[in-house]
Amino acid sequence: MEIYYSKQALKFLKKVDTITRKRIVTAIKKIPYGDIKKMQGYTKDIYRLRVGDYRIIFNKQGQVCYIEKIDNRGQVYKK
């Protein structure tokens, strides 16, 4: 599976500590598995992956996964 990161996602990964970064990247690499739910209210197939207090919003189309946003639990859903 190919994984692409948005500019915001890369920026967030750079600012968190190394242990958290490794947890998030490991969870992203295992993406068919984990605590994944389909987001409601979106026209595209948007999903969220939960990693502790962090949420990863991503779009999956076939074998391509585009990580749109990574942030804390309370901030990630704000538009």
Structure explained in plain terms:
This protein has a single domain (2-72), classed as YaeB-like fold. The model has no long low-confidence stretch (mean pLDDT 93). The chain is of the alpha+beta class and 79 residues long. A five-stranded mixed sheet has the order 1-5-4-3-2. It has helices at residues 7-15, 18-29; strands at residues 2-5, 35-38, 46-51, 54-61, 64-72. The chain contains two helices and five strands, in the order E-H-H-E-E-E-E. The longest helix has 12 residues, at 18-29. It is globular.
State the main characteristics.
79 residues, globular, five-stranded mixed β-sheet, YaeB-like fold, alpha+beta, 2 helices
Overall radius of gyration: 12 Å
What is the CATH domain class?
Alpha Beta
Tell me the major beta sheet: 5 strands, mixed
Beta strands, count: 5
The gross shape turns out to be: globular
Mean pLDDT: 93
The CATH topology is given as YaeB-like fold
What order do the SSEs take from the amino end to the carboxyl end, as H and E? EHHEEEE
Straight-line N-to-C gap = 28 Å
CATH superfamily: RelE-like
